[in-house]
Amino acid sequence: MNKSSRISGFHKMSAAERLNIVKTFSNLNDETVKLFENTGNIPIDLADNLVENVIGTMNIPLGIATNMKINGQDTLIPMATEESSVVAAVCNAARQCYDNGGFTTSMSGSLMIAQIQLVNITNPEYCKALIWEKKEDIKEICNACDPILMSHGGGFKDIEIRVIHTNAAAMVITHIIVDTRDAMGANAVNTMAEKLAPEIENWTGGKVYLRILSNLADKRLARARAVWTCESIGGESVRDGIISAYEFADHDPYRAATHNKGIMNGVSAVVLATGNDTRAVEAGAHAYATRRGSYRSLTHWEKDKHGNLVGSIEIPMAVGLIGGATKLHPIAKANLQIIGVQNANQLAEIIAAVGLAQNFSALKSLATVGIQKGHMSLHAQNIAMMAGAIGEEIEKIAKILVDKSLVRIDIAQEELTKLRGQ
Ligand code: MEV
User: Fold this and answer.
1) Cβ neighbours of residue 254 under 8 Å, at least 6 residues apart?
2) DSSP assignment of 171-234, as one string?
3) Who is most buried in 90, 132, 157, 242, counting CB within 10 A?
4) Ligand 1 centre and the CA of 245: distance in Å?
5) pLDDT tens column, 186-203
6) What is the mean pLDDT of the chain?
7) What is the structure's pLDDT at 1?
8) What is the pLDDT of residues 15-44, one digit of tens each?
9) 255 lines ligand 1 (CB under 6 A)
10) pLDDT tens-digit series, residues 42-54
11) Could you tell me which PANTHER family the record lists for this protein (predicted)?
Protein backbone atom coordinates (compact mmCIF):
# COMPACT_ATOMS: atom_id res chain seq x y z
CA MET A 1 0.00 0.00 0.00
CA ASN A 2 1.24 3.51 -0.86
CA LYS A 3 2.06 5.60 2.17
CA SER A 4 0.38 9.00 2.30
CA SER A 5 2.07 12.24 3.36
CA ARG A 6 -1.39 13.81 3.76
CA ILE A 7 -1.52 13.60 7.53
CA SER A 8 -4.48 15.48 8.89
CA GLY A 9 -3.93 17.50 12.05
CA PHE A 10 -0.18 16.78 12.12
CA HIS A 11 0.52 20.35 13.25
CA LYS A 12 -1.85 19.99 16.21
CA MET A 13 -0.14 16.87 17.60
CA SER A 14 2.55 16.79 20.25
CA ALA A 15 6.15 16.30 19.13
CA ALA A 16 6.04 12.74 20.53
CA GLU A 17 2.88 11.91 18.54
CA ARG A 18 4.41 13.29 15.36
CA LEU A 19 7.60 11.32 15.92
CA ASN A 20 5.56 8.17 16.30
CA ILE A 21 3.86 8.79 12.94
CA VAL A 22 7.23 9.44 11.25
CA LYS A 23 8.61 6.29 12.90
CA THR A 24 5.91 4.18 11.29
CA PHE A 25 6.05 6.00 7.94
CA SER A 26 9.84 5.70 7.57
CA ASN A 27 10.42 2.46 9.50
CA LEU A 28 12.70 4.10 12.07
CA ASN A 29 14.14 1.71 14.63
CA ASP A 30 14.02 2.40 18.39
CA GLU A 31 17.62 3.56 18.46
CA THR A 32 16.94 6.23 15.82
CA VAL A 33 13.79 7.33 17.63
CA LYS A 34 15.84 7.78 20.81
CA LEU A 35 18.17 10.14 18.91
CA PHE A 36 15.22 12.35 18.08
CA GLU A 37 13.94 12.20 21.64
CA ASN A 38 17.23 13.56 22.94
CA THR A 39 16.82 17.26 22.19
CA GLY A 40 20.10 18.31 23.81
CA ASN A 41 20.29 21.83 25.13
CA ILE A 42 16.97 23.07 23.83
CA PRO A 43 13.70 21.93 25.44
CA ILE A 44 11.29 20.27 23.04
CA ASP A 45 8.55 22.76 23.98
CA LEU A 46 10.74 25.64 22.88
CA ALA A 47 11.59 23.91 19.60
CA ASP A 48 7.87 23.26 19.10
CA ASN A 49 7.14 26.95 19.55
CA LEU A 50 9.91 28.14 17.26
CA VAL A 51 8.93 26.17 14.15
CA GLU A 52 6.13 23.95 12.92
CA ASN A 53 5.65 20.17 12.91
CA VAL A 54 8.61 19.59 15.22
CA ILE A 55 9.76 16.03 15.97
CA GLY A 56 13.13 16.83 17.56
CA THR A 57 16.20 19.02 17.28
CA MET A 58 19.53 18.72 15.50
CA ASN A 59 22.77 19.66 17.21
CA ILE A 60 25.63 21.41 15.40
CA PRO A 61 29.17 21.61 16.84
CA LEU A 62 29.97 24.87 18.61
CA GLY A 63 33.61 26.01 18.57
CA ILE A 64 35.28 29.05 20.06
CA ALA A 65 37.44 31.31 17.92
CA THR A 66 40.40 32.43 20.02
CA ASN A 67 43.09 35.09 19.46
CA MET A 68 40.53 37.66 18.31
CA LYS A 69 41.35 41.20 19.37
CA ILE A 70 38.73 43.66 18.16
CA ASN A 71 39.07 47.40 18.71
CA GLY A 72 41.70 46.65 21.34
CA GLN A 73 39.50 44.18 23.22
CA ASP A 74 40.21 40.45 23.42
CA THR A 75 37.06 38.55 22.54
CA LEU A 76 36.05 34.88 22.47
CA ILE A 77 33.69 34.15 19.61
CA PRO A 78 31.34 31.15 19.50
CA MET A 79 30.89 29.65 16.04
CA ALA A 80 28.26 27.03 15.16
CA THR A 81 29.25 25.05 12.08
CA GLU A 82 29.38 21.53 10.76
CA GLU A 83 32.40 22.28 8.53
CA SER A 84 35.89 21.32 9.64
CA SER A 85 38.68 23.95 9.48
CA VAL A 86 36.33 26.95 9.78
CA VAL A 87 37.00 27.69 13.46
CA ALA A 88 40.71 26.89 13.11
CA ALA A 89 40.96 29.28 10.15
CA VAL A 90 39.70 32.22 12.22
CA CYS A 91 42.02 31.38 15.15
CA ASN A 92 45.04 31.20 12.81
CA ALA A 93 44.29 34.44 11.00
CA ALA A 94 43.70 36.27 14.29
CA ARG A 95 46.93 34.92 15.80
CA GLN A 96 48.92 36.29 12.87
CA CYS A 97 47.59 39.86 13.25
CA TYR A 98 47.20 39.88 17.06
CA ASP A 99 50.54 41.56 17.79
CA ASN A 100 49.82 44.15 15.17
CA GLY A 101 46.63 45.28 16.89
CA GLY A 102 44.09 42.75 15.66
CA PHE A 103 40.92 44.04 14.00
CA THR A 104 39.44 47.52 13.89
CA THR A 105 35.77 47.86 13.01
CA SER A 106 32.99 50.34 12.28
CA MET A 107 29.32 50.31 11.37
CA SER A 108 27.31 52.48 9.00
CA GLY A 109 24.20 52.36 11.22
CA SER A 110 21.32 50.09 12.12
CA LEU A 111 18.93 51.11 9.35
CA MET A 112 16.66 48.57 7.70
CA ILE A 113 14.60 49.02 4.54
CA ALA A 114 11.08 47.83 3.83
CA GLN A 115 9.59 48.00 0.35
CA ILE A 116 6.03 48.79 -0.68
CA GLN A 117 5.12 47.87 -4.25
CA LEU A 118 2.45 50.05 -5.89
CA VAL A 119 0.93 48.84 -9.18
CA ASN A 120 -2.16 49.50 -11.39
CA ILE A 121 -1.18 53.09 -12.06
CA THR A 122 -0.86 54.90 -15.38
CA ASN A 123 1.00 57.90 -13.94
CA PRO A 124 3.90 56.55 -11.86
CA GLU A 125 5.89 59.80 -11.70
CA TYR A 126 2.82 61.69 -10.50
CA CYS A 127 2.14 59.01 -7.84
CA LYS A 128 5.73 59.28 -6.71
CA ALA A 129 5.24 63.02 -6.17
CA LEU A 130 2.03 62.35 -4.22
CA ILE A 131 3.81 59.91 -1.90
CA TRP A 132 6.72 62.31 -1.32
CA GLU A 133 4.24 64.91 -0.05
CA LYS A 134 3.12 62.46 2.63
CA LYS A 135 6.52 61.94 4.21
CA GLU A 136 5.44 63.41 7.57
CA ASP A 137 2.29 61.25 7.63
CA ILE A 138 4.40 58.20 6.78
CA LYS A 139 6.74 59.00 9.64
CA GLU A 140 3.81 59.29 12.07
CA ILE A 141 2.19 56.03 10.91
CA CYS A 142 5.47 54.10 11.12
CA ASN A 143 6.45 55.41 14.53
CA ALA A 144 2.99 54.70 15.97
CA CYS A 145 3.54 51.02 15.11
CA ASP A 146 6.40 50.53 17.54
CA PRO A 147 6.50 52.62 20.72
CA ILE A 148 9.13 50.31 22.25
CA LEU A 149 11.49 50.85 19.34
CA MET A 150 10.87 54.61 19.68
CA SER A 151 11.72 54.48 23.39
CA HIS A 152 15.06 52.91 22.44
CA GLY A 153 15.88 55.78 20.09
CA GLY A 154 14.84 53.93 16.93
CA GLY A 155 12.01 54.46 14.46
CA PHE A 156 11.35 56.01 11.05
CA LYS A 157 14.27 57.82 9.49
CA ASP A 158 13.55 58.45 5.82
CA ILE A 159 11.89 57.35 2.60
CA GLU A 160 13.17 56.63 -0.90
CA ILE A 161 10.82 56.34 -3.87
CA ARG A 162 11.67 54.84 -7.24
CA VAL A 163 9.73 54.12 -10.41
CA ILE A 164 10.70 50.83 -11.99
CA HIS A 165 9.67 49.92 -15.52
CA THR A 166 8.93 46.21 -15.73
CA ASN A 167 7.68 43.95 -18.53
CA ALA A 168 4.24 44.19 -16.98
CA ALA A 169 3.99 47.93 -16.32
CA ALA A 170 5.52 50.71 -14.27
CA MET A 171 5.57 50.28 -10.50
CA VAL A 172 6.28 52.78 -7.77
CA ILE A 173 8.49 51.29 -5.08
CA THR A 174 8.55 53.12 -1.77
CA HIS A 175 11.32 52.34 0.69
CA ILE A 176 10.79 53.16 4.32
CA ILE A 177 14.06 53.42 6.18
CA VAL A 178 13.86 52.58 9.84
CA ASP A 179 16.42 52.52 12.63
CA THR A 180 15.78 49.16 14.28
CA ARG A 181 18.52 49.56 16.96
CA ASP A 182 19.25 46.23 18.68
CA ALA A 183 16.59 44.29 16.77
CA MET A 184 17.27 42.61 13.44
CA GLY A 185 14.13 44.53 12.59
CA ALA A 186 12.22 42.34 10.15
CA ASN A 187 9.08 42.33 12.29
CA ALA A 188 9.26 46.03 12.99
CA VAL A 189 9.62 47.14 9.37
CA ASN A 190 7.16 44.58 8.00
CA THR A 191 4.49 45.80 10.43
CA MET A 192 5.11 49.40 9.35
CA ALA A 193 4.99 48.53 5.65
CA GLU A 194 1.72 46.66 6.07
CA LYS A 195 0.21 49.56 7.99
CA LEU A 196 1.25 52.02 5.28
CA ALA A 197 -0.04 49.99 2.35
CA PRO A 198 -3.73 51.04 2.46
CA GLU A 199 -2.72 54.67 2.94
CA ILE A 200 -0.54 54.59 -0.15
CA GLU A 201 -3.46 53.07 -2.05
CA ASN A 202 -5.71 55.88 -0.84
CA TRP A 203 -3.24 58.62 -1.73
CA THR A 204 -2.54 57.30 -5.25
CA GLY A 205 -5.57 55.25 -6.32
CA GLY A 206 -3.22 52.34 -7.13
CA LYS A 207 -2.97 48.85 -5.70
CA VAL A 208 -0.29 47.68 -3.26
CA TYR A 209 0.87 44.09 -3.56
CA LEU A 210 4.10 43.42 -1.68
CA ARG A 211 5.11 45.07 1.60
CA ILE A 212 8.19 43.42 3.02
CA LEU A 213 11.72 44.18 4.18
CA SER A 214 14.66 44.06 1.80
CA ASN A 215 17.51 41.76 2.77
CA LEU A 216 19.86 43.99 0.81
CA ALA A 217 20.62 45.82 4.07
CA ASP A 218 23.02 48.32 2.53
CA LYS A 219 22.29 50.90 5.21
CA ARG A 220 23.52 48.47 7.85
CA LEU A 221 27.07 47.84 6.72
CA ALA A 222 29.63 46.32 9.07
CA ARG A 223 33.29 47.01 8.32
CA ALA A 224 36.51 45.51 9.61
CA ARG A 225 40.18 45.93 8.76
CA ALA A 226 43.49 44.47 9.91
CA VAL A 227 47.20 44.57 9.12
CA TRP A 228 49.40 41.49 8.75
CA THR A 229 53.17 42.00 8.58
CA CYS A 230 55.08 39.91 6.06
CA GLU A 231 57.09 38.35 8.91
CA SER A 232 53.92 37.15 10.63
CA ILE A 233 52.50 35.47 7.54
CA GLY A 234 55.59 33.85 6.06
CA GLY A 235 57.05 36.44 3.72
CA GLU A 236 56.38 38.68 0.76
CA SER A 237 55.44 35.90 -1.61
CA VAL A 238 52.62 34.84 0.73
CA ARG A 239 51.40 38.46 0.80
CA ASP A 240 51.57 38.72 -2.98
CA GLY A 241 49.80 35.38 -3.38
CA ILE A 242 46.93 36.57 -1.17
CA ILE A 243 46.61 39.83 -3.11
CA SER A 244 46.66 37.95 -6.39
CA ALA A 245 43.99 35.53 -5.12
CA TYR A 246 41.86 38.54 -4.18
CA GLU A 247 42.32 40.16 -7.60
CA PHE A 248 41.25 36.88 -9.20
CA ALA A 249 38.05 36.80 -7.11
CA ASP A 250 37.33 40.47 -7.69
CA HIS A 251 37.45 40.00 -11.46
CA ASP A 252 35.90 36.56 -11.91
CA PRO A 253 32.44 35.66 -10.58
CA TYR A 254 33.24 31.92 -10.66
CA ARG A 255 36.06 32.48 -8.21
CA ALA A 256 34.21 35.24 -6.31
CA ALA A 257 31.38 32.83 -5.46
CA THR A 258 33.82 30.48 -3.71
CA HIS A 259 35.82 33.33 -2.17
CA ASN A 260 32.67 34.86 -0.68
CA LYS A 261 31.40 31.43 0.36
CA GLY A 262 34.55 31.11 2.46
CA ILE A 263 33.84 34.49 4.08
CA MET A 264 30.32 33.32 4.84
CA ASN A 265 31.70 30.15 6.46
CA GLY A 266 32.83 32.37 9.30
CA VAL A 267 30.02 34.92 9.16
CA SER A 268 27.15 32.41 9.16
CA ALA A 269 28.71 30.38 11.97
CA VAL A 270 28.56 33.37 14.34
CA VAL A 271 25.16 34.46 13.01
CA LEU A 272 23.81 30.97 13.77
CA ALA A 273 25.53 30.73 17.16
CA THR A 274 23.79 33.94 18.25
CA GLY A 275 20.36 32.80 17.07
CA ASN A 276 20.29 35.25 14.17
CA ASP A 277 18.96 34.69 10.65
CA THR A 278 21.73 33.14 8.52
CA ARG A 279 19.69 33.31 5.31
CA ALA A 280 19.00 37.03 5.72
CA VAL A 281 22.69 37.80 6.20
CA GLU A 282 23.73 35.53 3.33
CA ALA A 283 21.18 37.03 0.93
CA GLY A 284 22.31 40.54 1.87
CA ALA A 285 25.99 39.70 1.47
CA HIS A 286 25.67 38.12 -1.97
CA ALA A 287 23.37 40.87 -3.26
CA TYR A 288 25.81 43.50 -1.96
CA ALA A 289 28.66 41.72 -3.75
CA THR A 290 26.97 42.62 -7.06
CA ARG A 291 26.58 46.33 -6.36
CA ARG A 292 29.30 47.37 -8.83
CA GLY A 293 27.57 45.66 -11.75
CA SER A 294 29.11 42.20 -11.48
CA TYR A 295 29.52 39.72 -8.66
CA ARG A 296 32.77 40.62 -6.84
CA SER A 297 34.76 40.11 -3.65
CA LEU A 298 33.32 41.28 -0.33
CA THR A 299 36.87 41.85 0.93
CA HIS A 300 39.81 43.89 -0.33
CA TRP A 301 43.48 42.93 0.00
CA GLU A 302 46.26 45.46 -0.60
CA LYS A 303 49.85 46.28 0.33
CA ASP A 304 50.51 49.36 2.48
CA LYS A 305 53.51 51.66 2.10
CA HIS A 306 55.53 49.57 4.57
CA GLY A 307 54.89 46.44 2.55
CA ASN A 308 52.38 44.98 5.03
CA LEU A 309 49.36 43.05 3.88
CA VAL A 310 46.21 45.01 4.70
CA GLY A 311 42.73 43.54 4.48
CA SER A 312 39.27 45.07 4.76
CA ILE A 313 35.68 43.94 4.48
CA GLU A 314 32.34 45.72 4.12
CA ILE A 315 29.26 43.57 4.41
CA PRO A 316 25.56 44.13 5.18
CA MET A 317 24.95 42.73 8.65
CA ALA A 318 21.32 42.60 9.78
CA VAL A 319 21.71 40.97 13.17
CA GLY A 320 20.06 41.71 16.49
CA LEU A 321 20.29 40.99 20.18
CA ILE A 322 16.57 40.86 20.80
CA GLY A 323 13.74 38.97 19.19
CA GLY A 324 13.34 35.47 17.81
CA ALA A 325 15.74 32.71 18.69
CA THR A 326 18.33 35.20 19.99
CA LYS A 327 16.31 35.79 23.13
CA LEU A 328 14.73 32.33 23.40
CA HIS A 329 17.43 29.78 22.60
CA PRO A 330 19.39 29.17 25.82
CA ILE A 331 22.65 28.58 23.94
CA ALA A 332 22.21 31.65 21.74
CA LYS A 333 21.77 33.71 24.91
CA ALA A 334 24.82 32.10 26.50
CA ASN A 335 26.85 32.69 23.33
CA LEU A 336 25.99 36.38 23.44
CA GLN A 337 27.24 36.41 27.01
CA ILE A 338 30.52 34.84 25.86
CA ILE A 339 30.98 37.48 23.15
CA GLY A 340 30.03 40.15 25.67
CA VAL A 341 28.56 42.73 23.29
CA GLN A 342 26.44 45.62 24.53
CA ASN A 343 24.54 46.27 21.33
CA ALA A 344 23.71 44.82 17.91
CA ASN A 345 26.21 47.05 16.12
CA GLN A 346 29.08 45.58 18.12
CA LEU A 347 27.93 42.08 17.26
CA ALA A 348 27.68 42.99 13.57
CA GLU A 349 31.20 44.42 13.58
CA ILE A 350 32.64 41.34 15.29
CA ILE A 351 30.99 39.13 12.67
CA ALA A 352 32.56 41.23 9.90
CA ALA A 353 35.99 40.74 11.54
CA VAL A 354 35.38 36.99 11.60
CA GLY A 355 34.53 37.10 7.87
CA LEU A 356 37.78 38.92 7.13
CA ALA A 357 39.81 36.48 9.26
CA GLN A 358 38.19 33.53 7.51
CA ASN A 359 39.02 34.96 4.10
CA PHE A 360 42.64 35.61 5.11
CA SER A 361 43.18 31.99 6.09
CA ALA A 362 41.47 30.59 3.00
CA LEU A 363 43.50 32.80 0.64
CA LYS A 364 46.72 32.09 2.50
CA SER A 365 46.21 28.33 2.23
CA LEU A 366 45.09 28.52 -1.38
CA ALA A 367 48.04 30.71 -2.39
CA THR A 368 50.58 28.49 -0.62
CA VAL A 369 50.16 24.83 0.36
CA GLY A 370 46.61 24.46 -0.95
CA ILE A 371 43.45 23.95 1.05
CA GLN A 372 43.56 20.18 1.28
CA LYS A 373 46.53 19.89 3.62
CA GLY A 374 44.83 21.57 6.61
CA HIS A 375 41.38 20.48 5.58
CA MET A 376 42.30 16.88 5.06
CA SER A 377 43.54 16.13 8.57
CA LEU A 378 40.16 17.19 9.98
CA HIS A 379 38.28 15.62 7.10
CA ALA A 380 40.26 12.41 7.66
CA GLN A 381 38.91 12.26 11.21
CA ASN A 382 35.37 12.45 9.84
CA ILE A 383 36.14 9.69 7.35
CA ALA A 384 37.65 7.59 10.14
CA MET A 385 34.47 8.01 12.20
CA MET A 386 32.33 7.16 9.17
CA ALA A 387 34.32 3.95 8.82
CA GLY A 388 33.42 3.07 12.42
CA ALA A 389 36.52 4.26 14.31
CA ILE A 390 35.88 5.24 17.92
CA GLY A 391 37.93 6.82 20.71
CA GLU A 392 41.67 6.72 20.08
CA GLU A 393 41.15 4.85 16.82
CA ILE A 394 39.91 8.07 15.18
CA GLU A 395 43.25 9.91 15.50
CA LYS A 396 45.23 6.83 14.53
CA ILE A 397 43.21 6.06 11.41
CA ALA A 398 43.07 9.75 10.40
CA LYS A 399 46.88 9.97 10.61
CA ILE A 400 47.33 6.88 8.43
CA LEU A 401 44.94 8.32 5.81
CA VAL A 402 46.77 11.67 5.73
CA ASP A 403 50.21 10.00 5.63
CA LYS A 404 49.09 7.89 2.70
CA SER A 405 47.40 10.91 1.07
CA LEU A 406 44.40 8.62 0.64
CA VAL A 407 41.52 10.07 2.64
CA ARG A 408 38.93 7.52 1.55
CA ILE A 409 36.37 5.50 3.42
CA ASP A 410 37.46 2.15 1.89
CA ILE A 411 41.05 2.75 3.00
CA ALA A 412 39.80 3.81 6.45
CA GLN A 413 37.82 0.57 6.75
CA GLU A 414 40.82 -1.52 5.67
CA GLU A 415 43.09 0.25 8.16
CA LEU A 416 40.53 -0.07 10.94
CA THR A 417 40.29 -3.82 10.37
CA LYS A 418 44.09 -4.03 10.47
CA LEU A 419 44.30 -1.92 13.63
CA ARG A 420 41.70 -4.00 15.43
CA GLY A 421 43.43 -7.21 14.33
CA GLN A 422 46.72 -6.17 15.90
C1 MEV B 1 35.58 26.08 1.70
O2 MEV B 1 34.42 25.88 2.47
C3 MEV B 1 35.86 27.56 1.54
C4 MEV B 1 36.98 27.89 0.53
O5 MEV B 1 36.71 27.27 -0.70
C6 MEV B 1 37.00 29.40 0.39
C7 MEV B 1 37.88 29.90 -0.75
O8 MEV B 1 38.11 29.17 -1.70
O9 MEV B 1 38.29 31.07 -0.64
C10 MEV B 1 38.30 27.38 1.01
Assistant:
1) none
2) EEEEEEEEE-TTB--HHHHHHHHHHHHHHHHHHHS-EEEEEEE-S--TTSEEEEEEEE-HHHHT
3) 90
4) 12
5) 999 999 999 999 999 999
6) 96
7) 66
8) 999 999 999 999 999 999 999 999 999 999
9) no
10) 999 999 999 999 9
11) 3-HYDROXY-3-METHYLGLUTARYL-COENZYME A REDUCTASE
Q: Which of 58-72, 122-136, 342-356, 361-375 comes out lowest in average pLDDT? A: 361-375
Could you identify the atom of ligand 1 that is nearest to the CA of residue 359? 9
242 lines ligand 1 (CB under 6 A): no
Handedness of CA 358, 291, 107, 71 (dihedral sign): positive
Question: What is the whole-number distance in angstroms between the Cα of residue 362 and the centre of ligand 1?
Answer: 6
CA of 184 to the centre of ligand 1 (A): 28
Tell whether ligand 1 has an atom less than 6 A from the beta carbon of residue 262.
yes
In DSSP terms, which residues pair with 161 in a beta bridge?
174
* Residue 261 Cβ contacting ligand 1 at under 6 Å: yes
Ligand 1 near 362 CB (within 6 A): yes
Amino acid 236: pLDDT: 97
User: What is the CATH code for 111-214?
Assistant: 3.30.70.420
Burial 129-142 (b: 16+ CB within 10 A, else e): ebbeebeeebbebb
Q: pLDDT digits over 201-242, tens only?
A: 999 999 999 999 999 999 999 999 999 999 999 999 999 999
In this structure, the strands spanning 207-213 and 221-228 are: unpaired
Share of the chain above pLDDT 70, in %: 100
Ligand 1 centre from 367 Cα, in Å? 12
DSSP-assigned beta bridge partners for residue 302 = 310
Query: Ligand 1: which residue has its CA nearest to atom 3?
Result: 262
Q: Kindly indicate whether the domain formed by 10-107+223-367 is annotated with CATH number 3.40.1280.10.
A: no
* Helices vs. strands in the chain: H and E counts, helices first: 18, 10
Whether the Cβ atoms of residue 305 and residue 321 lie closer than 8 Å to each other: no
Residue 385 has what DSSP assignment?
A: H
Encode pLDDT of 110-144 as tens digits: 999 999 999 999 999 999 999 999 999 999 999 99
Give the mean pLDDT of 274-287: 98
13 within ligand 1 shell (Cβ under 6 A): no
Among 220, 196, 212, smallest CA distance to 142 is for: 196
212 lines ligand 1 (CB under 6 A): no
CA distances to 272, 278, 292 from 289, rounded to whole Å, are 21, 16, 8
Q: Tell me how far the alpha carbon of residue 1 lies from the centroid of ligand 1, in angstroms.
A: 46
Catalytic residues, which ones? Answer: 83, 261, 277, 375
